[in-house]
UniProtKB/TrEMBL annotation, chain A:
Involved in the high-affinity zinc uptake transport system. GO terms for biological process: response to zinc ion; transmembrane transport; zinc ion transport. Its main location: membrane. The gene is znuB. It comes from Marinomonas profundimaris. InterPro entries: ABC_BtuC-like, ABC_TroCD. It is found in: Cell inner membrane; Cell membrane. This is High-affinity zinc uptake system membrane protein ZnuB. CDD domains: TM_ABC_iron-siderophores_like. Belongs to the ABC-3 integral membrane protein family.
Automatic annotation (TrEMBL), chain B:
Keywords: ATP-binding, Cell inner membrane, Cell membrane, Ion transport, Membrane, Nucleotide-binding, Translocase, Transport, Zinc, Zinc transport. The keyword Transport applies. Pfam families: ABC_tran. It comes from Marinomonas profundimaris. GO terms for molecular function: ATP binding; ATP hydrolysis activity. The gene is znuC. This is Zinc transporter.
Amino acid sequence: MLDLLLRALLGGLGVAAVAGPLGAFVVWRRMAYFGDTLAHSALLGVALGFLFDINLNLAIVVLCVGLALVLVTLQKKHIIATDTLLGILAHSALSLGLVAVSFLDNIRIDLMAYLFGDLLAISQTDVYWIYGGGLTVIALLVTFWKPLLAMTVNEELAKVEGYPVEAIRLLLMLLVALVIAVAMKIVGVLLITSLMIIPAATARKLSKTPVQMASYASVIGCLSVCGGLWASYQWDTPTGPSVVVCAAMLFLIAYTVPFKRKR
Amino acid sequence: MTKQLVAFEKIGIAFDGRVLLESIDMSISEGEIVTLIGPNGSGKSTLIRTLLGLQEATSGQVVRHKTLRIGYMPQKLHIDPTLPLTVKHFLALVRGVDKHQILPTLEKLGIAHLVNSQVHVLSGGETQRVLLARALLNKPNLLVLDEPVQGVDVNGQVELYNLIEGIRNELGCGVLMVSHDLHLVMAKTDTVVCINQHVCCSGSPQHVTGHPAYQALFGVPGADESIAIYAHQHDHVHDEHGSILSGNDDDHTHCQHH
C-alpha cells in the first residue's frame, strides 16, 4: 500500500513539476483551448495505440503532434475562427476516440481511467515515462527559454531580432503534446489542461517575473498533487479530480487572501 | 561615401487582388533620417513590414547591405497581463544582448528609474522609450521606428525626436521613421518620402511640402490655421515654470516667448 502511494506521489509530483512552467506558457499565449483539443484527441491516440499494438505513450505523442501540425496549417488558411476550429477538432477527436475504443472487442479498456485519470494505477514503467518525458521537457524549456519567452512577449519583435519564430512555436506545441501524453495517466484527458492552467494562474498572483511564475506554478502544482492524494486516501475520492479540486482551492486562496504585492 | 543600407527596388505588394503598394523605389543610407509619410491605409506599415521580413513582396526586391542590422520599434506593445514582466526582463530578451548594456541604455533615454517596473504600468511615453531601448540594444545600424511618437503629447514628441536625432548623431546609424503627422518631424529629417500606394514625392522637407502631390494629400501648409508649423531653433532648455535655463550664454534673440 505504501509502495503504491509512494509511486503515485512520485508520478504526480513529476507531472505537476513539468505542467507548471508549460502551463505558464499556455496561460500567457492563451492556448488553454488548444491544450484541451490536444488532450481530447489523446484518447484517439490510446485507441490507435491498442489497434496497431504500439506503445500507448508514443501513440499519444505522435497523434498530438500530428494534430498540432494540422491545426497550425488550418489556422494559417483562415477558413474559420480559431476557437471554432479548435472546438470542431477537440470534440470530433474525442468522439472518434470513443468510437474507436468501442471497436476494440478483445481488449478491455478502463475508459474512466483515461478520461479522469487514475493516479493509484500507475506502474513503475509509467513513472519512468513521466520522469523521462518530464526531464526532456524541462531540458528543452531551459535551453530554449529565452526564444520561447521572446516569442511569447512579441512575435514580430522576436522575428525581427532573428529568432526562428516558426520553429519555436512548433517546439512549444510539441512540448504541450509531450506533457499531455505523460500527464494523461494522472488526471485523464478531461482534466489535464486544468493541471497546467490552474497552478500557473495561481502563480501569476504571486510573481513579478516570468521565471518566478513558471517555478511557483511547479511548486503549487506539486502541493495540489500532495493535497489531492491525501484527500483521496483519506476519503476515498477519485484522485485526478481531487488533485484538480485542490489546485482550484489554492487558486481561490491566492486571489482572495490579500497579499502585499509590490509594483 | 556613405554606405547604402537598404534599397527598395520596384516593390509591389498585392493582397487578394487589391494593390497595396506599387513600384516603390527608395533607399536609406547610414546617418540618414528618412521619414515615410502618407495617409492612413497608404501602405506605410506594409512597406516597413516588407523591410523587416514580416511580409513578402509580390514583386520587386529589397536589397539589404550585408552589414544591415535593424533595431525595430513597433507602434505599440501589447503584453498579456497574465505575463509578469519587468522592463529589465523585457530588454534582456533581445537576442544576444549584453546585459551590462541595459542600464546604460535606459540611462541614455532617461528612464533608468523604470528598470524594475512592470511593463504593464508604463505610460505611453515611457513605453515608447522602453521600445526604443529594446531597438537600440540590438546594436542596429538602421533604426526602424513605426510611428514613434504615437500617443505622446507635443512636448514629449519634441523630446523623443531630439533623442532620436541624438542617437543618430552618436551611432551614425540610419533612421527610417513612419509618421502620419508631418508637422513635428520635419525639422530633423533629411529626406521625406510621401507615399500613397506609390511614391508621390520625395526630397527634403521643404521640397516635399511645396510639392503639388503632397499638397493634394495633406493640404497646403498654413491653409489650416489650427495647426501651425513652429520652426524655431531650440538651443535652450525650459525649467518647469517656462523660463529659460541658461545652457550657454548666447542670447536668444531668435526665439520669442509669449
